[in-house]
Amino acid sequence: MGVRFDSEQQRFVFDFEHDGRGDIVSLTGEGYQVEAFGKYFYYGYEFGDEVDGNVRSAFIKYVKFTERLQDDPNLTQFIQKAVNNLNSRINLYDYDLVVMPQSSSRVNNYMLRYIYRFEQPKLRHYEDVLANPADEELCRTIREQNVLVIDDVTTSGSTLGEVLRTLRILNEDNRISIFSLIGRRDLMADVTT
Which residues fall within 8 angstroms of residue 94, CB to CB, at 6 or more apart? Predict the structure, then answer.
């Protein structure tokens, strides 16, 4: 069944054991990896092709703005499963720096806390990287670290592209990986060119 919308009860229903036709997202996969932004881009889930735009928007709103994630075991499991799958692909212990939006959603903050179970990376915000690319300490931190860029939902990829352009200038030798809880397979590498 994956995640589906129960229109009668006006709520999202999660089934972590089975996926079904018409699911908003499938939950039994191991996440997705695509070459995008000139780097590997990992994401936990992708919307089904048949998902109505209104349902998609409602699900994004539900994921990003749930008041207390701790009170929603389905949503916390949804996030944990995606991060665990990411760890199995890239080994989060190898990352010393996380870059994420400053005005983070609760989901981003929860993902970061969950990542801290693997490693205690330094944290920088997109806005710091974009506003202060000449800051010596910031440059040194970025240059010397493997960097994990995270976000909750990636739609157009324009913000990620901007952040990655700056990171690639400062960090040509170390690993830069991108992770989004919900992403798109069709993000094109030429977004950042």
Answer: 119, 146, 175
Q: What is the pLDDT of residues 27-70, one digit of tens each?
A: 877 778 777 666 778 888 888 878 888 888 898 888 888 777 77
Reported pTM: 0.84
CA distance 1 to 47: 14
| Cα–Cα distances in angstroms (integers) from residue 10 to residues 6, 17, 184, 186, in the given order | 6, 22, 26, 30
* CA distances for 111 relative to 30, 76, 82, 149, 163, angstroms: 17, 9, 9, 12, 19
Q: pLDDT tens digits, residue range 83-128?
A: 999 999 899 998 888 988 887 678 888 888 899 888 788 888 888 8
Distance of CA 121 to the CA centre of its chain: 16
Q: What distance in Å separates the CA atoms of residue 73 and residue 79, rounded to the nearest whole number?
A: 10
CA 113 to chain centre: 13
Which tokens belong to 45?
Answer: 């889930």
Identify any residues that bridge with 92 across adjacent strands, giving them in sequence order: none
